[in-house]
Structure formats: structure tokens, C-alpha cells
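ESCALATION

Customer reports they have been waiting on this structure for their group meeting. Please prioritize. Original submission:
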Amino acid sequence: MNVSVPTSPNEIVKPIHFKAMPAILTTPEEADLWLTGEWDEVKHLQRPLPGSMLAIVEPPAKPDEDRFL
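Update from on-call: job pushed to the front of the queue and completed.
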């Protein structure tokens, strides 16, 4: 199962997707709390990831299709 919980975008994501970004848990403790805690205990985890923890990278190069002919 994959669940995406949206939050407001940080400064890295906003130029690409201005409406939202997924909330990202960064430690095993956060994940455990998210899965086992009550809403009042976990709602602070539904926040944008700090921009310093994200980087935009180039997508991988596509394989050269002529190579397989």
C-alpha cells in the first residue's frame, strides 16, 4: 500500500508544483509515530520538508534505442 499525504510545497517544489507536495517522514521514529499515534500526536508531521533536505536532479538518460537494433 502506498499513501501520499499532501502538504503545502516548500521553496524547491513550489516552482514545479505550486499546489502541494507529499509530506515526507525522515526518521524511523517519525514513521513509527505516524503509523501508531493519535492525530493530535502526529499532525505536526504533515509539513513541508525543509528545502535544505531536497535536491533537484537530472533524470537518467534514456537508453539509445538504436543500440538494440
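Sent to customer with the following note: The two ends are 38 Å apart (CA to CA).
Escalation resolved.
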